[in-house]
C-alpha cells in the first residue's frame, strides 16, 4: 500500500507544483519581477528535492518525472526546449549521488536545496547566454536573479518543509 500511495501522491504533487510555479509567478509578478530584480519560483524543484530526500527507499521514478516536468516546463513556460528538460534530471542525479553521504535533517535538506537552486539557475543562465537569449554578465545575474531567487525559494522551503514531510511520513 505504501508504494501505491507515494506513486500517486508524487505525480499529483509535481503537477500541482508545475501549475503553481506559473500561477504564483503570474499573480505575484509585480513583486517577483520588480526591475532590476527577478525572483524565479522553483516549486517543481522543491517537490523533486523533497521526493528524493523524503522517500527513504528511493522507489519513486523521480528522474523520469523530472524529465517530463522539465519538458512541460520548457514547452509551456520558457518556449526553449532542453533547458529544464536537462536541468531537472541533472539535479535528481546529483542529489541521488550525495544522499547516502548526508545526515537527513532540515538544515541539510535546506543546504542541498540551495545548492540545487544554484545549479539550476546557473545552468539556465549559461544555456540562455549561449543561445543569446540574455546578454547580462555574471555579476548582474548573481545580484539581480540568483540572490532574490534563493531568498524567495528559501522562504518557501521553510514554510513547506514540515507539511510536506508530514505528507510523506503519512504516505509511508
UniProtKB/TrEMBL annotation:
It is found in: Cell membrane. It is a multi-pass membrane protein. Keywords: Cell membrane, Cell shape, Membrane, Transmembrane, Transmembrane helix. It holds the Pfam family MreD. The chain crosses the membrane at residues 35-54, 75-94, 106-129, 141-162. InterPro entries: Cell_shape_determining_MreD (IPR007227). Belongs to the MreD family. This is Rod shape-determining protein MreD. The lineage of its organism: Bacteria, Bacillati, Bacillota, Bacilli, Lactobacillales. The gene is mreD.
Amino acid at each position: 500500500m505504501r508504494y501505491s500511495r507515494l506513486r500517486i501522491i508524487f505525480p499529483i504533487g509535481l503537477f500541482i507544483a508545475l501549475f503553481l510555479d506559473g500561477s504564483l509567478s503570474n499573480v505575484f509578478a509585480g513583486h517577483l519581477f520588480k526591475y532590476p530584480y527577478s525572483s524565479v519560483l522553483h516549486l517543481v524543484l522543491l517537490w523533486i528535492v523533497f521526493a528524493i530526500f523524503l522517500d527513504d527507499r528511493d522507489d519513486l521514478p523521480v528522474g523520469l518525472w523530472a524529465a517530463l516536468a522539465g519538458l512541460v516546463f520548457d514547452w509551456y513556460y520558457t518556449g526553449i526546449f532542453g533547458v529544464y528538460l536537462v536541468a531537472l534530471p541533472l539535479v535528481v542525479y546529483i542529489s541521488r549521488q550525495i544522499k547516502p553521504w548526508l545526515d537527513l535533517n532540515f538544515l541539510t535538506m535546506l543546504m542541498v536545496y540551495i545548492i540545487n537552486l544554484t545549479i539550476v539557475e546557473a545552468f539556465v543562465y549559461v544555456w540562455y547566454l549561449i543561445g543569446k537569449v540574455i546578454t547580462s554578465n555574471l555579476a548582474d545575474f548573481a545580484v539581480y536573479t540568483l540572490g532574490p531567487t534563493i531568498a524567495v525559494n528559501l522562504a518557501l522551503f521553510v514554510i513547506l518543509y514540515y507539511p510536506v514531510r508530514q505528507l510523506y511520513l503519512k504516505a509511508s
